Structures are given as C-alpha cells and as structure tokens.
Amino acid sequence: MEPHKKLDCRGMACPMPIVKLSKAIKEMSQGEILAVSADDPGFEADVRAWCETTGNELKSLESDGEVRTAYIVKS
C-alpha cells in the first residue's frame, strides 16, 4: 500500500502522535492515505479510537518490532 503522505512519530510520547496525525490528515484530501509510524506503546489503541471517533478508516495496522504503522484513509 503506497500512502500519499507519511508521518514519522517515533520517539514521541502520547498524545503527540495523535496530535500530529490529526493535523496532517486535515491537510489531505478525501480518499488519500496517511501512513503514521510510532513506537509509543499506546499508539495502537489511540489510533483505533481516533479513527472510530473521527470517521476516518483505519485501513491496516502493521508492526515491525516496537514500531507500529497505521494506514488511514481520510473520509
């Protein structure tokens, strides 16, 4: 899956990855995909909750060691 935009939030503690994600997706067009990578332990639960709350689609969530990458489709 090739995202339209990538956001590297490794090394940031919660809630900064969600804050950065929220700001980045506002600058994107409907249907575009944002990839967000983070190593905060709470990122997975936070990004799932954020997508449910905002109506954006969590297309996939991949893990590579401690880094999780969420692919989000802007609604």
Give your account of this protein's structure.
By secondary structure, the protein is of the alpha+beta class. Helix content is 31%, strand content 33%. The protein has a 4-stranded mixed β-sheet, with helices on one face. Strand 3 and strand 4 form a beta hairpin. The longest helix has 12 residues. The two termini are 17 Å apart.
Summarize the structure.
With 75 residues, the chain is an alpha+beta fold. It contains 2 helices and 4 strands.
Quick check: average pLDDT? 96
Secondary-structure element string: EHEHEE
Relative strand content = 25-35%
Shape field:
globular
Low-confidence stretches: none
Major sheet attributes: 4 strands, mixed
* Secondary structural class: alpha+beta
Counting DSSP H or I runs of 4 or more residues, the number of helices is 2
Please count the beta strands (DSSP E, at least 2 residues each). Answer: 4
Helix content: 25-40%
Tell me which oligomeric state these chains represent: single chain
Radius of gyration over all CA atoms, rounded: 11 Å
Major β-sheet strand ordering: 1-2-4-3
- How far apart are the termini? 17 Å
